[in-house]
Amino acid sequence: MKTITMDVLKDAANRLLFDMDEKEYETLYEEFMILEKQMEKIGKIEGLEHYSPMTFPFDCSTSYLREDVATKPLPREEALKNAGNVQDDEIKLPKVVL
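Structure (tokenized):
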């Protein structure tokens, strides 16, 4: 793992195109030091390698989703009947990218 230093934090901030004052960097550095100590403690737990990483703490079921069954599509006229602005059998939308 890469060692976290003040230079590493400043380089990361620069790459993300933002900057902080010295006090904010010091606070961030202190928080990383706390995080590193916590990670060291977790790494010392015996038998930890026998468990898989947990990405989400709760079991979730998705049984409420319907089966994806192909059906006959709507006729073009019916699909476009509620569209506000239609051009060449397509829905015309306002430009969103400058």
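The CA atoms of residues 33 and 39 lie 10 Å apart. DSSP finds three helices and two strands in the chain.
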